[in-house]
Amino acid sequence: MILIKIGSFEFKKRNSNQVDKIPRKKKKVNMKSARIIVWITMVFIFCSGVMAFIKASNVSQTNHKLQKEVQTYQTKLDQASTNINGYSPLLNNYMQGFLKLYLTYPNNTDAMDKRNQALSAYYATNLTANDQAGKDSQTFNKAYIQSIYTQQGVKIAQYYVNYSVNNNQTNGYLNIPFKVKNSKFTVVSYPYFSNKIDPVGHIGKLQSKYTKENQTTSVNLNNRVIDFTKSFLKKYVAAKTSDMKFIMAKPQGLAGKYKVANIQNLHVYGTKNNPIVQCLLTLKRSDSDIEHSENVTLKLSKQQTTYFVDQFNHNIGGN
Questions:
Q1: Domain span including residue 55
Q2: Element containing residue 143 per DSSP (H, E)
Q3: How far is 119 from 128, CA to CA, in rounded Å?
Q4: Predicted confidence pLDDT, tens digits, the chain (319 residues)
Q5: Looking at the 3D structure of the chain, how many domains does it have?
Q6: Do 195 and 252 form a contact (C-beta atoms < 8 A)?
Q7: CA separation for the pair 313, 250 (Å, rounded)
Q8: Which domain CATH number covers 118?
């Protein structure tokens, strides 16, 4: 830079080689780009969290499935450890001892109390033997095994039994629900009489396993089902098997050998069109005052003005 003075004025002359400095602009932050980056980051974090949650849920479901499979295998192992697929001398010895007690009805209180106490050793813990002595007596004569089958997961042994009521011989087919584990047996539901099991038949497709659906039913539905159940059980006891084919899928009938003494512990569940009812049925022989109790489950289907019995089981559960 050259300084030139003229009079009282001074001038600066630019050097030809001098280059003026260009002031630099300060960089401004692009807010739109910043917002995009923030949103991308947030979306990434959210997606990562969702993926982690899904993976955790899948792991949980897998663990639950594995637990169910382990439980299924354990159940199969328990069933395999029963050491019985059908008849065995050990089972027959147990049942013969049980039947000798069960079909004996003394007509005095002391003997009946001893019989009930001995019978309790054969029953599951939630079953009771509290039969009362009356004027009539019943004695056990003999029993032969007829069949061993499974109904809703419960093993049942059917025996042909011969016994005497007041010295008059009679016979029938008695079904005893039982459970076995490690060669130990227990009667898990009250025995019941039925027709002889016919092993000859045409086997159709396997029915799907029923899943019990407990739900609250209306008072009107509850009353209708209970009224039908009481009427049906009285007819079942009095009628022949052939007379029950219009009301039952698999007809059964006791042909007047028994009378209904009591129906109690009635429980209704299921749906409006397919209700299910459970009860404790007490029967009394027509030729004596001797009674016995049976567990009953009826699976019904709604008809126009009544119900049809799709399943009639002599138990209140299964596996």
A1: 34-79
A2: strand 138-151
A3: 9
A4: 555 555 565 656 555 555 555 555 555 556 777 777 878 888 878 887 778 778 777 776 777 777 777 666 655 554 444 434 467 899 999 999 999 999 999 999 999 999 999 999 999 999 988 889 889 999 999 999 999 988 888 999 999 999 999 999 999 999 999 999 988 999 999 999 998 887 766 555 434 333 445 555 578 888 999 999 999 999 999 999 999 999 999 999 999 999 999 999 898 988 889 999 999 999 999 999 999 999 899 999 999 889 999 999 987 754 4
A5: 3
A6: yes
A7: 11
A8: 3.10.450.540
Amino acid at 57: S
Give, in order, the Cα–Cα distances in Å from 270 to each of 207, 232, 273, 276, 294.
18, 18, 8, 5, 22
CA distance 141 to 162: 5
Mark whether 111 and 179 lie in a shared domain: yes
Q: CA nearest 169: which of 134, 138, 131? A: 138
